[in-house]
């Protein structure tokens, strides 16, 4: 940048954009943006900033300069693209020589930006390309007489060293760590003890100075954590007594001068100490064991004196985590005494799992965050969660005494005189300490209470009370222990749960829907517990209340309620579901106009899909036409208005409708076919899998119409394009298999032309060959064989090149047999191979190849049969809060591709192969 004139102009531009009275100044912003593309811009900012801070110029102006510098470094020190102009190496060196000194000379608000800039530069250049940084920081740390400056330096060092706390082990990381340990381990201990001496001195310091001193100690603790995160450094092992002595002091430190301190710095120091000793407990147990008894006592005492105010949450959680680590270690004996266990349970765990006013406010004012914490698993760092983990840790070694103690406490919490918060605490503990199962169909178990007795004495009354938070906890209990209660008990609870779907509380409504959904998933002995007959007395009220629940404020796009509707529709009688089709379509229309919640949208279409699957599977023309009349206008508007979030769903449901139609299918469907081909021939999109699914349905239901419209060649061109990319090769064979299954032999020979075989074999025999592709191709050829005969396959391949079929069998088919798995796939390849062995003339003159194919079939059939009759997979779980990305593909479980057996008439592949060979070659 040009020296004086440009610097003045740049300064004036920053004055204009930082002056509130002038308002937005686009000309100045454009000037600054243009200047940032010139060499020297970063140095110019630092020079202007240095001049401004030296004369204490307007703080807003300085902040604008510092913020621009930080952002300039962030985007241009190591640009992520080729378009952004990077900072030149010579200017980088100038910046690195100035930035630390300027950071220390600046006011606190400016220091923050510059410290971030130092951290950014360090992430790229330190230590290899910024050898002077650490020595400069150490020099300034040792020579500074200002505690404020020491604090700034320590914060900068903490930012630089944080990579050691979360970085993965690597030679590069360990090399950098060793450099930092060599240069900073001793200075760190020196400054920590020096400041500690000032804090401990009998001569009191004022509150502001004391706060700064403790801020320094907090940063020292954070740096200690980073430097010790990978493994125990030799320096820290040699000086462990000094460090632990200081840590012990701060755990019990109190000072009246900090009573009015709003930052909570003393709690922050204690939190950092707890995290450090927990780190040593986890990683350096042997070296730490001599200090453990003292710390266990100190942390326990600290917790008993810690308030329940949110300001002390981080301290409480860090302390509880330390006790939990100890409880799971070989030193658990520290907690073996009955009095110790009682104190932990009564004075630490119970108070910290008790619902607080802040939780009630969250329940009322921000229900979705409450739900996310409570049942979506985002509460890992809450007092409730860490305290329940402490009980689990104690139960690892002292299950019976802890269980007995908890039973006593639970009884006290659930007594007649107890309030709703006590009962909520009891329910939370029982649920938190339950033994979880891996399947949603099972639920949890507990030996703390008799589930059915607890349901009768506590949960049913809680569901009937007007305490909303207690209702939610009771619903969570029913959901968690859904398998532990009998079917009769669950059905008895259903009317009250259904009633709560109409609750004005978003949390209660959501939990009621969640409860119904999970109850209907339960299986007894592998079979669904509830049938449509069991649900019949409740089905209409259940669906009506669920649909009404979606009209309540805050629940208009409630994914839990929508999933409940889907679950109910999958179980109720067909007619019951159809009675609510209009209500369901109103939800689709509302979601179409405002597709805000992806998870909700998914379950809306899953509900539509399950109705189509259940109601149309009999192919009753009147029923199918009723669905078409209600769905088509909405689907047409979605496609015409390019609602990309919903297009994949529309194509999948349309595929279901096509498949439910008897041939010939109406022309209104076939009008979609050219559009489908045109879109698929363009670049792949989120709708591609769904469009492929619909294309398959067309090929299987309307092959004659497609052939008559001369569209088969376009289909084959599409296969050719899809098979050329590894990411879409599956789709290519979905289509190719549908062509083989749907066309007659004459049409098939015309469709599977030379170019298509060339595409297949080029992939299979070239450098892009993979096991997956080999299996796909072999399964396709096997299907071709069983549908149209070995002769048709051999002739089709040999049209490409005479005798090519021999090479294909030897190089592709036979090797692929060793990779084939799955009951249907194994049978298909075995039968197709047997037909080649017995019917194909191409193998007659090649006994070696014939024997290789026979050996391959025998090996294929020797593998153990896969287990049959497995439980049908349920609708996959999805993230309720985030769902699927807009425009991406989300497969509908109820409209999924059903794996059809092309050889249903053959029950036993082994017997078929044996019989075929015996008939063709008696005495073999």
Q: Would you spell out the secondary-structure blueprint of this structure?
A:
Blueprint: H1 4-17, H2 26-35, H3 41-54, H4 59-76, H5 89-105, H6 108-125, H7 133-143, H8 147-161, H9 163-166, H10 171-200, H11 207-228, H12 234-238, H13 240-251, H14 265-283, H15 285-288, H16 292-305, H17 313-328, H18 338-353, H19 357-365, H20 367-374, H21 383-413, H22 420-432, H23 451-464, H24 468-480, H25 487-500, H26 506-519, E1 523-524, E2 527-528, H27 532-535, H28 539-549, H29 559-571, H30 574-578, H31 581-593, H32 598-616, H33 621-640, H34 647-660, H35 667-670, H36 672-681, H37 688-701, H38 703-708, H39 712-723, H40 729-742, H41 745-751, H42 754-765, H43 771-788, H44 790-798, H45 804-816, H46 823-839, H47 847-862, H48 909-920
Protein name: Importin N-terminal domain-containing protein
Keywords: Cytoplasm, Nucleus, Protein transport, Transport
Main location: cytoplasm
